Fold each of these.
Amino acid sequence: MLVKRDIERRLRGEDILPQEITDHGAYLNRRAFMAGAAVLALAPWGREASAQGKLQPLQATKSPAYQLQESLTPYKHVTSYNNFYEFGTNKEDPERLQAALKTRPWTVQVDGLCAKPKTFGIEELLKFPLEERVYRLRCVEAWSMVIPWIGFPLKDLLKRVEPTAQAKYVEFTTLLNAEMFPGQKRGLFGFSLDWPYTEGLRLDEAMHPLTLVTVGLYGQVLPNQNGAPIRVVVPWKYGFKSAKSLVRIRLTSEEPKTAWNKAAANEYGFYSNVNPEVSHPRWSQATERRIGELRRRDTLMFNGYADQVASLYAGMDLKRFY
Amino acid sequence: MSYPARVALKAAIWVGSLWPLGVLLRDFMTDDLGANPIEYITRTLGMTALVLLLTSLGMTPLRALFGWSWPIQLRRLLGLLAFFYVCLHFSVWIGLDHFFAWRRMWGDVLKRPFITVGMSALLLLIPLAATSTQGMIKRLGGARWRLLHKLAYVIGGLGVLHFLWLAKKGRTTPYYYAIVLALLLGARVWDWVRKRRSALRPGALPGRESARARS
């Protein structure tokens, strides 16, 4: 017999039995203990994550400054409900087709307006001091997740190449390879995104401590469907700004052309900051559905990161620069 | 068409059209509705409604093209099943998606074109469903009833627009539906032109016969 609680649980997409979930208090205690011990330790997701995939575990220090008092979205949903048009336009496509993406060997070319351009091998990038940070992810389609990412601040990488004074923007480019990314083949009607996927940030946004070069989640290396082997995560902007499977990071003096902006400029601006007051032309952004919850919740200005990032946009008309 | 064949066809329509609802119930029972269950339920109900709507619109062209009469006997059933799914789709939007936040929903109806057209399609379906009985056909008279039920094409158009306008760029499925609708409308126009021509030619065969001869 289904009780109301059970029905609501199913509609929330909460498929995990209660006894399988670490209770939040215990989770926080463990966290405090680990932070107190100031040790490099494996993340406590071991059981859930290893039950899902056989991905390589990653060591990372927990960043106490970047934790949230919100429940994590289950690993299963984080890795099965993805917008990654390189694989296909359905949310299930990335998980279904991920095996074709080969992430070794892999290099990321960091160049453009900088003194020391350099092509980094993925092994070298994994040697940066890795942190675990829990961020909200807000999709432009009005759903959201909470994800424990592993990575390092983009500014640490950019400093290595020494941006010149002319550098004002950063452009990200995703791998172009239709063998690995079937979604990059031309569709029947010819329209899809203009591949390769490109995204961009203003240099001050890129240098912001929240902007994370990301190589893992839930204590493991990134699953392919989440943008392996290396992506960027910009938590105060809509998810599509956080480009995946990066092969190039270029410093430029002009605002980079971005994939979704080229596809529909009136719907996807260069800034695309999460903003409950600026609607998408076709739907409201005032509320969102947190994956795993039944009721909609109110969307927060800058996805809840206003304290850290609002000053970047002081004096700007955010309705115009959407 | 023989009586058993007609019964079998109707039974097939019932089973086929209730299938998606069964799948949703099964997924619910096995806790398999995915990461975003409400979105999945809404999408499945909406897609099924649109498929049934377009199928019902396909019945008249089938008669015109092949001269069969049986498709006409299925129109009402298909149309009512489409209406049933539209009602479920709408109820989920109200009760699960927005949790009875009336003001917000009303704002969306006014401001979001895809919701405006979807709501219009629902409202226009009501008089059609209400006049679907034999008694109502008699009361309205055949000609007026047929004119009223031409609205089904408008509703089909609104349904396809609803889908086109809510889909993100790069998704091709809504365009397939638009093509199917255009073909169905094209078949009606072709039939109308053909009938007019044969009416102008004295002694021409009645439309249905000439269609059969041609095919």
Note: Residues 16-43, 46-51 of chain A have pLDDT under 50 and may be disordered.
Amino acid sequence: MIDRARAGDVAAYESLVRRYQDVALRTAYLVAPEADAADAVQDAFLKAYAALPRFRRGAPLRPWLLRIVANEARNRRRSADRRTGLAVRAAVAGSRDDVAPSPESEVIAEEARGLLLAALGDLRDEEREVIGARYFLGLSEAETAEALAIPAGTVKSRTSRALGRLRATLAERDGGPADG
Amino acid sequence: MADQPLHLRPDAALEDALRGLAGAIDWPTAGPSPAGGPDLAAIVRTRIEAGGSAAVTGPAPSRWSWRPARRALVVAVIVLLAVAALAGAASLGLPGLRLILGPAPISPPPSLEPSRSPATGGPGSSMGLGTRVELADLDAQAGFDVTWSADPTLGPPDAAYVDRSKGGQVALVWAARPGLPETLEPGVGLILTAFRGGITDGFFSKAINQDTTVRLVLVDDARAYWLSGEPHFLFYEGPDGVIADDRRWVGDALLWADGPITHRIESSLGLDRTTELAEAMP
């Protein structure tokens, strides 16, 4: 499919877009919640199509695409004049069919969801991105490194630091001391 | 454990809570399902197949040798402008410049005459580029800071012109020499033009025929266009719609904008080298 798209087969590329559009939209939303994710993803897929000749044959496509999406979203974040956080649905039960219910969904109570979301909003952009890539998008460390254009070692250290800051922020918001 | 405050939970539990949160986030969705948004994949395909007024075909063929490193991220969307099928004008987002994709409102200039000799009044003096000015006076005459490529192999231009009748276009001309092959204009190796495009200004128009290829490329990560193949012709249409009758043929050209200033390099150096020169603009 990738080879056909590289050769200019637009229908093949459309299939690739369809395969990765959901994770691309989530990536864009994660990086720039205040921007129009669909807009960013459209432009990113156009750029990716143009850049396909430079895609290394045999390399994983998903993180390569997400890197372009993240860059596109980041550009829009810089130009946005307001900041908003991720929005959470009222109830997990209302989730769409294509979002598989997570076994961890029940681990977090509804009120804790809001608290966690607010704490995420206190993180720095690069920390929120790495947390989102690892835990929301389910990317591996290697994929996260490629998608966010940072070394694999940085993914590890930044994740650890972000979790620490998240814990501290949660403690602050919850009125108790952080444990560890 | 679910009742324990989040900040007191062990790392693994906090990570689980984050994974659980993913299912509750109101993620944007793609169609075409009724629950989703617009059919994103179809929109992307449509934009590829018909970006603006131009048809867009596949990525650049592999005959391009993409050297990495400093060179521009020359991308590969090939825009083949089929004149018969795609009549109209495309602004391409470059201030003050548009492409005529179909019958031009003015006839082409006379056929190229390859036997012509270099102009005797200096490089570019017979091209209708305007009044020749000294480099020291260029900024004042143009009304904006005129720059050219800092590439060490190029050096300062051999001649500079300003044409107030064409929106104050500045044309910098380098004579042909070893390493700077002739353009369509005998004796001329490279022409860099710059003009300010505003809504009250006129347009430089490029009439593209079916054998001219327009590629979307990047210059310093900004959108640019590379016109190559068969020569196209260039003319100027003033804000009052009057077309200046000094049409001229143009060969390979790179077009890009830096803010309100649109730049155009005409050269026979090819896409890669021309892009390098463009990216060396201060």
Note: Chain B touches chain A through 53 residues (CB under 8 Å).
